[in-house]
Design goal:
Chain lengths: 267, 353
Amino acid sequence: MKIPPRFVRLPLAFDAAALLAEVSELPDEAWAAHFNAHYHNGGWSGVALRAGDGDSSRLFIDPNARDEAQDTPLLARCPSLMQALESFRCPMRAVRLLRLAPGGNIDLHQDPDLRFDAGQARLHIALATNPDVEFYVDGERVMMEPGECWYLDLSRPHRVANRGSSARIHLVVDAVVNDWLIAQIAAGDLPRREASRPSSASEFERFRQIVFAQPALAERLRATSDADAFVSLSVELGQGSGCEFTPADVKAEMAQGRHRWIAQWIL
Amino acid sequence: MDPVSRFDGWIPIRVYAAASGYRVDWCYFGTRRLTEPFFRDSVQNALQEPFNVAFRQDTAIDALLEWAQVRPGIEPTAFIFHTSRCGSTLLSRMLMALESHVVASEPPLLDAVLRAHLSTPALPADVQAAWVRATISGLAQRRVGNESRFVVKLDGWSIVDLPLMRRAYPDVPWIFLYRDPLEVAMSQFKMPGAYMVPGVIGPSVARISTDEPIVMPREEFIARVLGRIFEAGLEGCRSAGGRPVHYRELPEALWATLAGDFGVATDAATIATLRDAARPDAKNPYFEFVRDSEQKQRASSEVLRRAVDRWVAPAYASLEALRDTRADPRTKSPAPAPAAAGFSPVTTASVRS
């Protein structure tokens, strides 16, 4: 398998409730804010269960480290999580719990070191989620249910928004690709799921079509050259047209719009 | 909805192949003029506007074909084919200086359409020619109101696609602009264009198979690509109505021999405007446009000289002979100057002609 799918559900199932019970016992101070502060809005935090130096606040994963990660002291308090990790018959460079609070947003970005062909794969085990968590990989929405384990190609552009009222908590495993993992991915599937309400990305697309059909609306949007003001104006005019989307949707489309032009020069 | 309100003020900026077929990426240009040296720079500037990155239209190519029917652009005045590094940007900058003229300089979407048959062999030539017309029509929309002439400067390798351009536009005048191939080769050797690096723009314009360039000296690859370009230019000038133009005829040729083809007025004020536009180096405003032939010749290596002699010199000589039979006596090609002694380094200014 040279190029795996962009995302796929692996044939592994976990007892999300039991794992979550252990997670809820972790002290509040164990949750450290995610280091990539420039592209999240403050609602993203995590706990390291296995890290290069065994430090539970170490969310950063050194892309050059090749050794298996050390258990952090917090993992010892979580026997169910320890047992769950035994399901992974591949080396693990890091294991983290990542929590996205209600209203939390992670802007569009890429993790270029997570390339499958470079032997890196990130797996997400959903523990707590809600129907209004919107996880997009390459513009496609991925809906993960509690207890499921997913492979996601996060070297591609991706973003997450928690538009619901409860926290999203995923167990995130950074695996080293081996034959076992390749077999798991090959045996994976892609369940078809209906969203409970239109995603904000689809709402923004609906607004875009309204704008293309209404030159006067387009004219109002063109009047501003300042990127931040433009994002706010788009959200406001979108609401006026009955389209509910967020600044993140506008910003993601702007990044993609730039990329589509530049990509033709990239080999 | 009706195409007029949907695409009024919009311009196609990119044509690309998707799983569902060829598609068009549209950007709002409004009354924006194409004043930058290259079309891609004009787009780059337009994309500074947040609206133009967040609100681009993406349609099947059929929408572009329909738009060309509903709102045809200015019918092209003339086409500039060229060998690269031969003053083609100077020529297009001069034309851009005239309010009456709009120049689309090396629009990458036209190249994508001209080369579409390479990735889609089943594409019928008539369909492809219709795409070419629709693409140029979309670029040639009147945006300010006083434009009356539209000129396309194609890419340095586009001359090999001349038959398709002639199928789309059998009657539009075109020129083939070139200079001494050793000077072009020298410049390409120092600062190669995309098509001078094997594989970058897809199949080689010189029909060199993909494995060959790996073992081939760069000098030979460049000379063979240039040879194919010069041969295509020669063939086109002989049998498809092209006018051969040598670098050394610039800038004066534009208001002399080329004025008719390019729809350029020859009054004193227009000539003054053109002369003025010819002054700064066309791609680099920091340097005056200077003739740098001798410098380039001196700096060329023996290997490159031999490769050019073998692969390009015959077509170049034939082009010069053809030009002599048609040219104004004042611009006939002189006997080659003896090589000057000494070596002087090639400057940035001189490679960027």
